[in-house]
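Recap from last week: sequence in, structure out.
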Amino acid sequence: MPTQTFEHLAETRRTSFIEAAFDEFLQNDYENASVTQIVKRLGIGMGSAYRYFENKKELYFYLKSLAEKEKMAYVMPVLEAGISDFFEMYRELFRVGLQF
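Predicted structure tokens:
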């Protein structure tokens, strides 16, 4: 999870870091994703990244958590629609999940 230092960053800096980290993990699998590339892209020191997250694994799980929250917010209207047929609701969740 992120450190207090990361939580207290200005919103624009925090958002830039998250976007750069997502891009790095989208372009590379976990093993090949590089914190070095993230900090190079942002023009910050390597030490900054490790003041934000203890290690790459913590960063990865934080990004995973953000993506899960975003997806849940995206599919929530299906759950709130009151579809009474379980299979119809499940198909709609699947369809909306794919759109996400």
